[in-house]
Design a protein that fits this description.
Length: 746
C-alpha cells in the first residue's frame, strides 16, 4: 500500500501546533474537522462523476452546519456562562475558540477554493451550469421576470432596523440580504439605513431553465437582487450583502419526575428557543458591507473569527437540487441489490418465525436488507398469535413502515410498548409527532428516560406458540429502525429466540420503561451502569494475557472514540504488548504510534459510498474470542448520559461473520485513511502490484467459506498456552461451526 497526506491549509502558528502535539490526546473538535476533510476528499475523487462529487460537497456543508450548531454552540455555552472548559489539547475556552475557529476558517476556504477551481469548470461539460445574467436571452429574462412578480415578490418582506424598528429575528440557516439605503439628498454615514430581506426557504433555491443542450440553474438570491428596486422605491440603494447566520442548536433539558405532558412541553419550548439562540457563525459573500457587518457583530457578540467570507455559492446543501434533478439523478451511486444473509440463506422461502426458533441470524446492512426486520414486524402486527411488541425508536424514516406496523398491531388489540426518544437531535419534532400518533392508537408510549437519551436499538415480539408456549423474538441492532438510512448506513443486527438474550432484553425493557434495576445481564453490557468498566476490564484482561506471554489482541470498530478512561486503558494495554487495531470512522481522541505510549495501536477511518455506522468489539481472550455488537461508541455521553447496550455474539457462525466484517474493514485499501501520531490522516491506496479491496463492494460477494477462514491476527493459527480442556472446548466450537457451514448451500 502507499499513502498520501490530506492537504488542508494550516493556519495555526507553530507555537499552537507544538502545544497541541504535546498532549497525549487529540482534540475532539479538531479531530472532527479532519473527519470532514476526509468527506471533502470524496468530492476530490476524479473516479467519481461530477454529481457524486457534488453530493459529497453538499454533505460537507450539512456536516459543518451541524458542527457549528452543536459543537461550537456547546463551546459558547461555556464561554457565555463563564464555565471552565479545558480541551483535550490542554487549551482553555478562549484559547481553544481561537484555535478551533481558525482551523474551520482554513477548511472553509479550502472547500470554496476546490469547488470554484476544480468542480465548477466541469459543469458545462456535464450538461448544466449555475447561471449568471450574462447566460440569459430575452425569453429567459421574461420568464424570470414573471416568476419573480407572480411567485417571489409577494413573499418578500423588507425588515427595517432603525430608531423606530427593533432588530429583527433572523432565521437560522436562512439566506438573508442585508440592504443599505439612503434617502435622496442624504450624504452622510448617519443617513444610511439598514434593512433585511430573507430569501424564502419554501421555494427552490434555483430557478431552472432547460435550454435543450444544457440546463441552467439560476440562484433565487440573484433573482431577488436583480429586482430589489421593486422593494425599495424612491431611495438610494448603496449596497446589498447576502449572508447567512448559524445559531446555537445545543440545549439541555431540565428534567424531573413531572408528568409526560410537561416534559413534552419543555422539549417543545426548547425547540422554539433554537430560533432565537445565540449566533455562532455568519457566512457572508465577498465584498460585504463593513458597516453592516459591524452592526451584526456587535448585535450577536461575535468577532471576525465567526465571520466566514464566501466567494462562491453560500450553503452548498443547495447542490442537492441539481443532483436530484430528473435529468441527472440517475447518475448517483446506486447500491447493488442486497444479498441474502449468510445465516439465513433460505430467506424468501421460509417463515422467519419458524426459522428463528432454531437459528440466530446476523444482518449486515446495507449488504443484507432490512426487509427481514420489516417483514417480521409487519407479520407480527397481523399475526393473531402475537401478544405484544416492544421497541425503542431513535430515528424513523419519513414514511415509516415501522410506525404503520405498530399502529396496525395496536388496532389488532396487541400490547404495543414504544420508547420514543424525543431528544434525538434534529428529529425531536418528528418523534413527538409520531409518538403522539401511536399514543392515540392505544400504544403505551414512553418519551425518553429522565436525564438520559435512549440510544439503544432493541425490539421484542412476544408470540404464543403451540401448546401454550410463549416465544420471544428479539432484535438487537447498531442502527436505527429507519428503512431509508438502512440502504446507506452500514450496521449490524442480531435476530434470535435464544432465551438468554430474551431474558436480558426483557429485563432491560423493564428497566427503561419502569422502575426495575437489574443487577446483571448474561449477554448484555449496558449503559449507564457498567459499560465503561466492563470494557476496561476486557481491555485489561488482554493486557494481562500479553504480560503472561499468552496471545492477545483487540479489534474495535466504532463511530467515535473520546472517553479518556478507555483511551488510557488502551495505552496501558499497548505498553503491555497488546496489538490494538481500531476502525474509527469519525473523530478519534486517541493518539496512536507515540513512543512508550501507543506504539502498538493502529487507527484507521473508512469513508466512502456508505456511511460506516456499525459498532463491533473483539477481544482475543486467549483463543476464545469475545465479540460484541451494539449501539454504543466509546464516548463519555455513551457511557454516562445515554441508555446503550452491547450484545455478546455467541453463535459460532455469527461470531465468525462479525470477525470477517472486522477483517474486511482492516483489508480495505480504497476508502481508508490512517491516523498518524500528529493527528493528521493519510489516504491508503493499493500499490502497483496490489489489488484493490473495497469493502463497499466486497461485502456483496462474501461467501460462507470466506467467513469460516476469517481471522484478525497471524498468531491465531499458532498453538496457544490453553489447557487441554480449553483446547477441547475451542475444537468443539470449531466443529459445530464447520458442520453448520457444510450443511448449508453455498
Amino acid at each position: 500500500m502507499f499513502t498520501y497526506q490530506l492537504m488542508v491549509e494550516d493556519c495555526m502558528t507553530y507555537t499552537k501546533k507544538d502545544t497541541l502535539l504535546k498532549s497525549n490526546y487529540i482534540s475532539r473538535d479538531l479531530s472532527w474537522i479532519n473527519f470532514n476533510t476526509r468527506v471533502l476528499d470524496q468530492a476530490k475523487n476524479i473516479t467519481r462523476n461530477i454529481f457524486e462529487r457534488l453530493k459529497f460537497m453538499a454533505i460537507t456543508a450539512s456536516n459543518l452546519d451541524e458542527f457549528f450548531q452543536i459543537r461550537v454552540g456547546s463551546l459558547y455555552n461555556y464561554i457565555d456562562y463563564g464555565k471552565e472548559r479545558i480541551d483535550y489539547s490542554g487549551l482553555r475556552e478562549q484559547q481553544f475558540r481561537k484555535t478551533l475557529l481558525s482551523e474551520v476558517q482554513s477548511f472553509y476556504k479550502h472547500q470554496i477554493d476546490y469547488f470554484e477551481r476544480s468542480l465548477r469548470p466541469e459543469f458545462r461539460k456535464n450538461g448544466f451550469d449555475i447561471a449568471s445574467q450574462e447566460d440569459l436571452n430575452e425569453k429567459d429574462k421574461e420568464g424570470i421576470e414573471d416568476y419573480f412578480m407572480n411567485i417571489v415578490y409577494p413573499m418578500l418582506t423588507p425588515m427595517a432596523y432603525d430608531g423606530y424598528h427593533s432588530f429583527p429575528i433572523l432565521v437560522n440557516k436562512m439566506l438573508t440580504l442585508g440592504v443599505i439605503t439612503r434617502n435622496p439628498g442624504g450624504g452622510k454615514d448617519n443617513d444610511k439605513k439598514l434593512s433585511f430581506v430573507q430569501v424564502p426557504q419554501n421555494l427552490p433555491r434555483f430557478y431552472t431553465i432547460d435550454k435543450g443542450d444544457i440546463i441552467l440553474f439560476m440562484p433565487l438570491e440573484d433573482i431577488i437582487k436583480w429586482h430589489i428596486d421593486k422593494l425599495y422605491r424612491n431611495v438610494e440603494l448603496i449596497s446589498m450583502t447576502l449572508f447567512r447566520i448559524t445559531r446555537n442548536g445545543d440545549f439541555s433539558i431540565e428534567e424531573s419526575d413531572d408528568i409526560e405532558e410537561q416534559y413534552i412541553e419543555e422539549i417543545t419550548r426548547k425547540l422554539k428557543s433554537r430560533k432565537t439562540a445565540r449566533v455562532v457563525r455568519i457566512e457572508a459573500e465577498s465584498g460585504y458591507s463593513e458597516w453592516m457587518m459591524k452592526i451584526l457583530k456587535e448585535r450577536y457578540e461575535i468577532d471576525n473569527l465567526n465571520v466566514f467570507e464566501n466567494s462562491s455559492i453560500i450553503d452548498y446543501t443547495c447542490l442537492w437540487q441539481i443532483i436530484n434533478h430528473d435529468e441527472f439523478k440517475d447518475n448517483l451511486f446506486v447500491a447493488p441489490v442486497p444479498v441474502k444473509p449468510i445465516s439465513f440463506p433460505t430467506y424468501d422461502e421460509e417463515d422467519p418465525f419458524e426459522y428463528l426458533k432454531k437459528n440466530d441470524v446476523l444482518l449486515h446492512q446495507p449488504y443484507n436488507s432490512m426487509q427481514l426486520v420489516l417483514d417480521l414486524l409487519e407479520r407480527a402486527a397481523e399475526d393473531p398469535n402475537v401478544l405484544a411488541i416492544k421497541i425503542t425508536i431513535y430515528r424513523l424514516a419519513k414514511k415509516s413502515r415501522i410506525t404503520n406496523a405498530l399502529l396496525k398491531a395496536a388496532e389488532n388489540g396487541k400490547h404495543v410498548s414504544v420508547l420514543f426518544e424525543v431528544k434525538a437531535r434534529f428529529d425531536e419534532e418528528n418523534n413527538i409527532r409520531e409518538g403522539q400518533r401511536l399514543q392515540k392508537a392505544g400504544c403505551f408510549v414512553v418519551y425518553g428516560v429522565n436525564r438520559l437519551k435512549t440510544h439503544t436499538k432493541l425490539m421484542m415480539i412476544v408470540r404464543k406458540e403451540d401448546k401454550g408456549k410463549v416465544t420471544r423474538y428479539v432484535h438487537m441492532s447498531s442502527g436505527n429502525y429507519n428503512e431509508d438510512t438502512a440502504r446507506l448506513y452500514t450496521d449490524i443486527s442480531l435476530l434470535t429466540t435464544n432465551e438468554i438474550y430474551a431474558h436480558d432484553v426483557n429485563e432491560f425493557f423493564n428497566a427503561i420503561t419502569g422502575h426495575s434495576m437489574p443487577e446483571k445481564y448474561s449477554y448484555l453490557i449496558t449503559a449507564p451502569g457498567n459499560m465503561r468498566q466492563r470494557l476496561i476490564e476486557l481491555i485489561n484482561q488482554e493486557a494481562e494475557n500479553a504480560r503472561k506471554g499468552l496471545p492477545a489482541g483487540i479489534v474495535i470498530k466504532v463511530n467515535s472514540l473520546q472517553d479518556l478512561a478507555i483511551i488510557d486503558a488502551f495505552y496501558q494495554a499497548s505498553n503491555a504488548g497488546v496489538p490494538i487495531k481500531l476502525i474509527v470512522r469519525g473523530m478519534c481522541c486517541l493518539r496512536p504510534g507515540r513512543k512508550n505510549l501507543s506504539e502498538n495501536i493502529y487507527v484507521k477511518s473508512i469513508v466512502g459510498n456508505f456511511l460506516e455506522h456499525g459498532r463491533l468489539y473483539y477481544f482475543h481472550n486467549n483463543g476464545d474470542p469475545l465479540v460484541y455488537g451494539g449501539s454504543a461508541d466509546m464516548m463519555v455521553r455513551s457511557f454516562d448520559r445515554r441508555i446503550e447496550s452491547l450484545f455478546l455474539i455467541t453463535d459460532p457462525l455469527l461470531k465468525q461473520e462479525a470477525i470477517n466484517i472486522l477483517d474486511y474493514n482492516l483489508k480495505d485499501n480504497v476508502n481508508s485513511y490512517v491516523l498518524l501520531e500528529d493527528g493528521t490522516y493519510v489516504k491508503i491506496a493499493p500499490s502497483k502490484d496490489e489489488a484493490e479491496f473495497d469493502t463497499h463492494v466486497e461485502f456483496f460477494k462474501v461467501k460462507k467459506n470466506t467467513v469460516l477462514k476469517a481471522k484478525l491476527f497471524d498468531f491465531e493459527n499458532k498453538p496457544t498456552a490453553d489447557t487441554s480442556a480449553k483446547k477441547k472446548t475451542t475444537r468443539k466450537k470449531k466443529n459445530i461451526l464447520t458442520e453448520k457451514l457444510n450443511t448449508e448451500n453455498e
